[in-house]
Amino acid sequence: MFKVAIIGTGLPWKTEGSTGFGMSRAHAPGYVKSGKCEIVALADLKEANMAAFNVELCEGKARQYTDYHAMLAAERPDIVSIATWPHLHAEMVIAAADAGVRAIHCEKPMAGTFGEARRMAAVCAERGVQLTFNHQRRHLPTFQTAKRLLAERAIGELTRLEGSCSNMLDWGTHWLNMFQMLNGESTPVWVMGQVDYRKPHQVYGVIHDTDGMCLVGYENGVHGLLCTGETAEKAVGCAIKAIGTEGTLEIHNTAPHLRLRKGSVLEEWTGPETEGGLHGNFANHDNVVDLVNALESGTKPLCDVSNALATTEIIYACYESARRRGRIELPLTIDDHPLAELVQSGAYPATAP
Protein backbone atom coordinates (compact mmCIF):
# COMPACT_ATOMS: atom_id res chain seq x y z
CA MET A 1 0.00 0.00 0.00
CA PHE A 2 1.21 3.49 -0.85
CA LYS A 3 1.26 5.95 2.07
CA VAL A 4 -0.51 9.19 1.13
CA ALA A 5 -0.33 12.60 2.80
CA ILE A 6 -2.54 15.57 1.90
CA ILE A 7 -1.51 19.21 2.28
CA GLY A 8 -4.45 21.62 2.41
CA THR A 9 -7.75 20.14 3.60
CA GLY A 10 -9.75 23.37 3.57
CA LEU A 11 -13.54 23.39 3.70
CA PRO A 12 -16.16 21.92 1.34
CA TRP A 13 -17.21 24.12 -1.57
CA LYS A 14 -19.95 26.68 -0.81
CA THR A 15 -19.83 26.17 2.95
CA GLU A 16 -19.45 29.11 5.31
CA GLY A 17 -15.83 30.20 5.45
CA SER A 18 -14.73 28.27 2.36
CA THR A 19 -12.36 30.04 -0.02
CA GLY A 20 -12.42 27.62 -2.94
CA PHE A 21 -13.66 24.29 -4.19
CA GLY A 22 -12.10 22.23 -1.39
CA MET A 23 -10.29 20.16 -4.02
CA SER A 24 -8.56 17.88 -1.53
CA ARG A 25 -12.02 16.40 -1.00
CA ALA A 26 -11.93 15.40 -4.65
CA HIS A 27 -8.45 13.86 -4.32
CA ALA A 28 -9.08 11.69 -1.27
CA PRO A 29 -11.81 9.43 -2.75
CA GLY A 30 -9.48 8.69 -5.67
CA TYR A 31 -6.87 7.21 -3.35
CA VAL A 32 -9.55 5.04 -1.77
CA LYS A 33 -10.89 4.06 -5.19
CA SER A 34 -7.43 2.92 -6.31
CA GLY A 35 -7.41 0.20 -3.65
CA LYS A 36 -3.65 0.71 -3.38
CA CYS A 37 -3.35 3.61 -0.94
CA GLU A 38 -3.85 4.62 2.66
CA ILE A 39 -4.18 8.28 3.65
CA VAL A 40 -1.92 8.40 6.70
CA ALA A 41 -1.51 12.13 7.35
CA LEU A 42 -3.04 15.56 6.80
CA ALA A 43 -1.59 19.05 7.03
CA ASP A 44 -3.55 22.27 7.36
CA LEU A 45 -3.20 25.49 9.34
CA LYS A 46 -6.74 25.18 10.69
CA GLU A 47 -7.13 22.17 12.96
CA ALA A 48 -10.95 22.26 12.90
CA ASN A 49 -11.02 21.97 9.10
CA MET A 50 -8.49 19.17 9.21
CA ALA A 51 -10.39 17.27 11.90
CA ALA A 52 -13.64 17.47 9.91
CA PHE A 53 -11.86 16.22 6.78
CA ASN A 54 -10.31 13.38 8.77
CA VAL A 55 -13.65 12.16 10.08
CA GLU A 56 -15.42 12.58 6.73
CA LEU A 57 -12.84 11.03 4.41
CA CYS A 58 -10.25 9.14 6.48
CA GLU A 59 -12.41 7.48 9.15
CA GLY A 60 -10.57 9.67 11.65
CA LYS A 61 -7.42 7.58 11.25
CA ALA A 62 -5.04 10.08 9.61
CA ARG A 63 -2.51 11.86 11.78
CA GLN A 64 -2.86 15.65 11.78
CA TYR A 65 -0.18 18.34 11.44
CA THR A 66 -0.27 22.12 11.27
CA ASP A 67 3.28 22.13 9.83
CA TYR A 68 3.62 20.28 6.53
CA HIS A 69 7.41 20.16 6.85
CA ALA A 70 7.02 18.26 10.14
CA MET A 71 4.52 15.94 8.49
CA LEU A 72 6.86 15.13 5.60
CA ALA A 73 9.74 14.41 7.98
CA ALA A 74 7.72 12.27 10.38
CA GLU A 75 5.52 10.33 7.95
CA ARG A 76 7.81 9.89 4.92
CA PRO A 77 4.83 9.41 2.56
CA ASP A 78 5.05 7.81 -0.87
CA ILE A 79 2.52 10.22 -2.43
CA VAL A 80 1.63 13.79 -1.51
CA SER A 81 -1.48 15.67 -2.68
CA ILE A 82 -1.32 19.47 -2.62
CA ALA A 83 -4.57 21.44 -2.69
CA THR A 84 -3.55 24.95 -1.69
CA TRP A 85 -3.52 28.31 -3.46
CA PRO A 86 -1.16 28.63 -6.46
CA HIS A 87 1.44 30.89 -4.82
CA LEU A 88 2.17 28.07 -2.33
CA HIS A 89 2.52 25.27 -4.88
CA ALA A 90 6.21 25.64 -5.72
CA GLU A 91 7.54 25.69 -2.16
CA MET A 92 5.34 22.74 -1.19
CA VAL A 93 6.13 20.64 -4.26
CA ILE A 94 9.86 21.24 -3.86
CA ALA A 95 9.74 20.47 -0.13
CA ALA A 96 7.93 17.20 -0.84
CA ALA A 97 10.43 16.27 -3.55
CA ASP A 98 13.34 17.08 -1.22
CA ALA A 99 11.71 14.89 1.45
CA GLY A 100 11.97 11.87 -0.84
CA VAL A 101 8.35 11.29 -1.86
CA ARG A 102 7.80 9.23 -4.99
CA ALA A 103 4.83 11.11 -6.47
CA ILE A 104 3.20 14.52 -6.06
CA HIS A 105 -0.29 15.44 -7.24
CA CYS A 106 -0.94 19.18 -7.23
CA GLU A 107 -3.90 21.38 -8.02
CA LYS A 108 -3.94 23.71 -11.00
CA PRO A 109 -2.98 26.30 -12.08
CA MET A 110 0.65 25.32 -11.67
CA ALA A 111 1.99 28.48 -10.03
CA GLY A 112 1.73 32.25 -9.67
CA THR A 113 4.83 32.81 -11.84
CA PHE A 114 6.35 30.92 -14.76
CA GLY A 115 9.68 30.65 -12.96
CA GLU A 116 8.02 28.73 -10.13
CA ALA A 117 6.35 26.39 -12.62
CA ARG A 118 9.65 25.64 -14.35
CA ARG A 119 11.43 25.14 -11.04
CA MET A 120 8.89 22.58 -9.81
CA ALA A 121 9.22 20.59 -13.02
CA ALA A 122 13.03 20.73 -12.93
CA VAL A 123 13.38 19.69 -9.28
CA CYS A 124 11.01 16.75 -9.67
CA ALA A 125 12.82 15.63 -12.83
CA GLU A 126 16.16 15.78 -11.00
CA ARG A 127 14.78 13.81 -8.05
CA GLY A 128 12.94 11.25 -10.18
CA VAL A 129 9.61 12.27 -8.65
CA GLN A 130 6.39 11.70 -10.61
CA LEU A 131 4.62 15.09 -10.76
CA THR A 132 1.04 15.54 -11.93
CA PHE A 133 -1.41 18.45 -12.02
CA ASN A 134 -5.17 18.17 -11.80
CA HIS A 135 -6.29 18.86 -15.37
CA GLN A 136 -8.96 16.27 -14.68
CA ARG A 137 -11.01 16.94 -17.81
CA ARG A 138 -8.62 14.68 -19.70
CA HIS A 139 -10.58 11.86 -18.06
CA LEU A 140 -14.09 13.05 -18.96
CA PRO A 141 -15.95 10.98 -21.58
CA THR A 142 -16.98 14.15 -23.43
CA PHE A 143 -13.37 15.08 -24.16
CA GLN A 144 -12.22 11.50 -24.64
CA THR A 145 -14.93 11.06 -27.29
CA ALA A 146 -13.94 14.34 -28.95
CA LYS A 147 -10.31 13.20 -28.99
CA ARG A 148 -11.30 9.91 -30.64
CA LEU A 149 -13.45 11.65 -33.27
CA LEU A 150 -10.60 13.97 -34.23
CA ALA A 151 -8.16 11.05 -34.40
CA GLU A 152 -10.64 9.27 -36.69
CA ARG A 153 -10.73 12.39 -38.90
CA ALA A 154 -14.47 12.89 -38.40
CA ILE A 155 -13.98 16.51 -39.51
CA GLY A 156 -11.08 15.85 -41.85
CA GLU A 157 -7.70 17.36 -41.00
CA LEU A 158 -7.74 19.54 -37.89
CA THR A 159 -6.75 23.13 -38.70
CA ARG A 160 -7.89 25.27 -35.77
CA LEU A 161 -9.07 25.06 -32.16
CA GLU A 162 -11.08 27.80 -30.46
CA GLY A 163 -12.19 28.15 -26.85
CA SER A 164 -13.95 30.52 -24.48
CA CYS A 165 -13.78 30.86 -20.71
CA SER A 166 -13.67 33.41 -17.90
CA ASN A 167 -9.91 33.98 -17.59
CA MET A 168 -6.56 32.84 -18.95
CA LEU A 169 -4.86 31.31 -15.92
CA ASP A 170 -7.34 29.63 -13.57
CA TRP A 171 -9.93 28.45 -16.10
CA GLY A 172 -7.92 28.86 -19.27
CA THR A 173 -5.42 26.29 -18.03
CA HIS A 174 -8.16 23.68 -18.50
CA TRP A 175 -9.09 24.71 -22.04
CA LEU A 176 -5.52 25.16 -23.26
CA ASN A 177 -4.74 21.74 -21.80
CA MET A 178 -7.68 20.36 -23.77
CA PHE A 179 -6.29 22.04 -26.91
CA GLN A 180 -3.11 20.05 -26.39
CA MET A 181 -4.94 16.76 -25.90
CA LEU A 182 -7.24 17.30 -28.88
CA ASN A 183 -4.25 18.33 -31.01
CA GLY A 184 -2.30 15.16 -30.25
CA GLU A 185 0.06 16.89 -27.78
CA SER A 186 1.73 18.87 -30.59
CA THR A 187 4.33 21.29 -29.22
CA PRO A 188 3.34 24.99 -29.07
CA VAL A 189 5.98 27.07 -30.87
CA TRP A 190 4.73 30.66 -30.64
CA VAL A 191 2.11 32.74 -28.86
CA MET A 192 0.60 36.15 -29.52
CA GLY A 193 -1.96 37.70 -27.22
CA GLN A 194 -3.53 40.69 -25.55
CA VAL A 195 -5.25 41.03 -22.19
CA ASP A 196 -7.23 43.65 -20.30
CA TYR A 197 -7.48 44.40 -16.59
CA ARG A 198 -10.57 46.59 -16.21
CA LYS A 199 -10.96 46.08 -12.47
CA PRO A 200 -9.03 44.44 -9.63
CA HIS A 201 -9.24 40.73 -10.36
CA GLN A 202 -7.51 38.03 -8.38
CA VAL A 203 -8.32 34.32 -8.30
CA TYR A 204 -6.86 32.42 -5.35
CA GLY A 205 -4.42 35.22 -4.67
CA VAL A 206 -3.03 35.57 -8.22
CA ILE A 207 -3.75 38.48 -10.62
CA HIS A 208 -5.86 37.41 -13.62
CA ASP A 209 -7.04 39.11 -16.79
CA THR A 210 -10.61 40.36 -17.05
CA ASP A 211 -10.61 39.86 -20.83
CA GLY A 212 -8.10 38.38 -23.21
CA MET A 213 -7.22 36.73 -26.51
CA CYS A 214 -4.48 34.14 -26.91
CA LEU A 215 -3.39 32.88 -30.34
CA VAL A 216 -1.12 29.82 -30.35
CA GLY A 217 0.84 28.29 -33.21
CA TYR A 218 1.59 24.58 -32.87
CA GLU A 219 4.39 22.59 -34.44
CA ASN A 220 1.94 20.60 -36.59
CA GLY A 221 0.51 23.77 -38.17
CA VAL A 222 -2.71 23.89 -36.15
CA HIS A 223 -3.67 27.24 -34.62
CA GLY A 224 -5.42 27.69 -31.28
CA LEU A 225 -7.43 30.73 -30.17
CA LEU A 226 -8.65 31.19 -26.60
CA CYS A 227 -10.95 34.11 -25.77
CA THR A 228 -11.54 35.05 -22.14
CA GLY A 229 -13.92 37.32 -20.23
CA GLU A 230 -17.64 37.71 -19.61
CA THR A 231 -18.55 37.85 -23.32
CA ALA A 232 -15.98 35.34 -24.60
CA GLU A 233 -18.52 32.62 -25.40
CA LYS A 234 -20.32 35.00 -27.77
CA ALA A 235 -17.10 35.27 -29.77
CA VAL A 236 -16.62 31.51 -30.07
CA GLY A 237 -20.20 30.24 -29.85
CA CYS A 238 -19.40 27.35 -27.53
CA ALA A 239 -16.88 26.17 -24.94
CA ILE A 240 -14.42 24.58 -27.39
CA LYS A 241 -14.58 24.31 -31.17
CA ALA A 242 -12.42 22.11 -33.39
CA ILE A 243 -12.40 23.18 -37.05
CA GLY A 244 -11.27 20.80 -39.76
CA THR A 245 -11.08 20.62 -43.52
CA GLU A 246 -14.41 18.74 -43.68
CA GLY A 247 -16.42 20.02 -40.74
CA THR A 248 -16.56 21.31 -37.18
CA LEU A 249 -16.83 19.59 -33.81
CA GLU A 250 -18.30 21.74 -31.05
CA ILE A 251 -18.15 21.12 -27.30
CA HIS A 252 -20.91 22.91 -25.39
CA ASN A 253 -21.62 23.65 -21.75
CA THR A 254 -25.22 22.53 -22.26
CA ALA A 255 -26.56 19.25 -23.65
CA PRO A 256 -25.98 17.89 -26.20
CA HIS A 257 -22.38 18.53 -25.21
CA LEU A 258 -20.89 17.26 -28.49
CA ARG A 259 -22.21 18.56 -31.81
CA LEU A 260 -20.80 17.60 -35.18
CA ARG A 261 -21.08 19.91 -38.18
CA LYS A 262 -20.39 18.33 -41.58
CA GLY A 263 -19.93 21.02 -44.19
CA SER A 264 -22.89 23.39 -43.86
CA VAL A 265 -25.23 20.87 -42.19
CA LEU A 266 -25.46 20.82 -38.38
CA GLU A 267 -25.81 17.34 -36.92
CA GLU A 268 -26.20 16.71 -33.19
CA TRP A 269 -23.78 14.06 -31.98
CA THR A 270 -25.75 11.08 -30.67
CA GLY A 271 -22.91 8.78 -29.61
CA PRO A 272 -22.17 7.27 -26.19
CA GLU A 273 -23.45 8.96 -23.05
CA THR A 274 -20.98 11.55 -21.77
CA GLU A 275 -21.43 11.39 -18.01
CA GLY A 276 -20.97 14.76 -16.33
CA GLY A 277 -20.80 16.81 -19.52
CA LEU A 278 -17.87 19.20 -19.08
CA HIS A 279 -17.74 18.58 -15.35
CA GLY A 280 -17.95 15.59 -13.01
CA ASN A 281 -16.16 14.90 -9.75
CA PHE A 282 -15.49 11.32 -10.83
CA ALA A 283 -12.85 12.71 -13.21
CA ASN A 284 -10.89 13.98 -10.20
CA HIS A 285 -11.08 10.50 -8.69
CA ASP A 286 -10.05 8.82 -11.94
CA ASN A 287 -7.12 11.21 -12.27
CA VAL A 288 -5.82 10.06 -8.88
CA VAL A 289 -6.33 6.40 -9.77
CA ASP A 290 -4.37 6.99 -12.97
CA LEU A 291 -1.41 8.58 -11.19
CA VAL A 292 -1.34 5.75 -8.63
CA ASN A 293 -1.37 3.13 -11.38
CA ALA A 294 1.35 5.03 -13.25
CA LEU A 295 3.53 5.14 -10.14
CA GLU A 296 3.09 1.41 -9.66
CA SER A 297 3.76 0.50 -13.30
CA GLY A 298 6.36 3.13 -14.18
CA THR A 299 4.24 4.48 -17.04
CA LYS A 300 3.44 8.11 -17.82
CA PRO A 301 0.26 9.46 -16.15
CA LEU A 302 -2.34 11.22 -18.28
CA CYS A 303 -1.90 14.52 -16.41
CA ASP A 304 1.89 14.44 -16.32
CA VAL A 305 3.79 17.65 -15.58
CA SER A 306 4.97 17.82 -19.21
CA ASN A 307 1.55 18.80 -20.56
CA ALA A 308 0.83 21.03 -17.55
CA LEU A 309 4.06 22.95 -18.11
CA ALA A 310 3.32 23.37 -21.84
CA THR A 311 -0.11 24.75 -20.95
CA THR A 312 1.35 27.12 -18.36
CA GLU A 313 3.99 28.28 -20.83
CA ILE A 314 1.26 29.33 -23.27
CA ILE A 315 -0.56 31.32 -20.58
CA TYR A 316 2.49 33.23 -19.39
CA ALA A 317 3.63 33.72 -22.99
CA CYS A 318 0.27 35.37 -23.70
CA TYR A 319 0.80 37.74 -20.79
CA GLU A 320 4.38 38.34 -21.97
CA SER A 321 3.09 39.10 -25.47
CA ALA A 322 0.88 41.80 -23.97
CA ARG A 323 3.89 43.19 -22.12
CA ARG A 324 6.22 43.17 -25.14
CA ARG A 325 3.46 44.00 -27.65
CA GLY A 326 4.59 41.30 -30.02
CA ARG A 327 4.68 37.61 -30.85
CA ILE A 328 6.56 35.39 -28.42
CA GLU A 329 8.67 32.55 -29.74
CA LEU A 330 8.88 29.54 -27.44
CA PRO A 331 10.48 28.27 -25.27
CA LEU A 332 9.63 31.04 -22.82
CA THR A 333 12.49 31.99 -20.51
CA ILE A 334 10.94 34.57 -18.16
CA ASP A 335 10.51 33.91 -14.44
CA ASP A 336 7.86 36.43 -13.39
CA HIS A 337 4.13 37.01 -13.96
CA PRO A 338 4.01 39.65 -16.74
CA LEU A 339 0.42 40.75 -16.12
CA ALA A 340 1.08 41.19 -12.40
CA GLU A 341 4.17 43.27 -13.23
CA LEU A 342 2.15 45.41 -15.65
CA VAL A 343 -0.58 45.99 -13.07
CA GLN A 344 1.93 46.84 -10.35
CA SER A 345 3.74 49.26 -12.67
CA GLY A 346 0.52 51.19 -13.30
CA ALA A 347 0.08 50.11 -16.93
CA TYR A 348 -3.53 49.16 -16.17
CA PRO A 349 -5.60 51.59 -14.07
CA ALA A 350 -7.78 48.66 -12.94
CA THR A 351 -10.92 50.79 -13.01
CA ALA A 352 -13.93 50.45 -15.28
CA PRO A 353 -14.19 53.21 -17.93
UniProtKB/TrEMBL annotation:
Residues 168-250 form the GFO/IDH/MocA-like oxidoreductase domain. InterPro entries: Gfo/Idh/MocA-like_OxRdtase_N, Gfo/Idh/MocA_oxidrdct_glycsds, GFO_IDH_MocA-like_dom, NAD(P)-bd_dom_sf. Keywords: Oxidoreductase. Residues 2-135 form the Gfo/Idh/MocA-like oxidoreductase N-terminal domain. Pfam families: GFO_IDH_MocA, GFO_IDH_MocA_C3. SUPFAM superfamilies: Glyceraldehyde-3-phosphate dehydrogenase-like, C-terminal domain, NAD(P)-binding Rossmann-fold domains. One of its GO terms (molecular function) is nucleotide binding. This is Putative dehydrogenase. It comes from Armatimonas rosea.
